[in-house]
Amino acid sequence: MTGFAEHRRVATVALVVASYDEAIAWYVERLGFTLTEDVDLGGGKRWVTVAPSDGQGARLLLAEASGETQRKSIGNQTGGRVFLFLETDDFAGDHAAMLDKGVEFREAPRHEAYGTVAVFADLHGNLWDLIQPKR
């Protein structure tokens, strides 16, 4: 496609949260993510990113809600649909570890044409898929 760089990717996805520190703790302790950045921007704002520990895929920008409109979107950024997809090469191991850490799964694991999957909720109720794609 002309006019665009050859190599582009979605690098960061913003996720509105109630509290920076609460969200950092949840993603690091419950999902095993790594805190990749925590920069004070002044005025109570921070640039906080987390990512899977192997550095694969997009980072999450944990954006603390500012104002009533943003607070209303916490936990419902996609109107109740699955929002993000956490891919793994060890579904059974990650599923067991997440259950052990208190992650709330909304369904039992199931096998689909595209892989093994189960829906879980993050600390605010946003829905995610834990998925091991068929290769």
Describe this structure in words.
This protein has 135 residues and is α+β, with helices and mostly antiparallel strands. Helix content is 21%, strand content 39%. The protein is built from 3 helices and 9 strands, in the order βαβββαβαββββ. It has helices at residues 20-31, 68-73, 91-100, and strands spanning 12-17, 34-42, 45-51, 59-64, 82-87, 104-105, 110-112, 115-121, 127-133. Strands 5, 6, 7, 8 and 9 form a 5-stranded mixed sheet that branches. A 4-stranded mixed sheet has the order 1-4-3-2. The longest helix is centred in the N-terminal third of the chain and has 12 residues, at 20-31. The protein is globular and about 45 Å long.
Quickly list its features.
alpha+beta; four-stranded mixed sheet; 3 helices; 9 strands; globular
Global geometry: globular
Class of secondary structure makeup: alpha+beta
Spans with pLDDT under 50 lasting ≥5 residues? none
**Element order: H for helix, E for strand:** EHEEEHEHEEEE
Helix content: 10-25%
Rg value: 16 Å
The number of strands is: 9
- How many strands, what sense, and barrel or not for the largest sheet? 5 strands, mixed
Give the end-to-end Cα distance, rounded to a whole number of Å: 28 Å
Task: Briefly say what this structure is.
It is built from 3 helices and 9 strands.
Topology (SSEs and partners):
Layout: E1 12-17, H1 20-31, E2 34-42, E3 45-51, E4 59-64, H2 68-73, E5 82-87, H3 91-100, E6 104-105, E7 110-112, E8 115-121, E9 127-133
Parallel strand pairs: 1-4, 5-9
Antiparallel strand pairs: 2-3, 3-4, 6-8, 7-8, 8-9
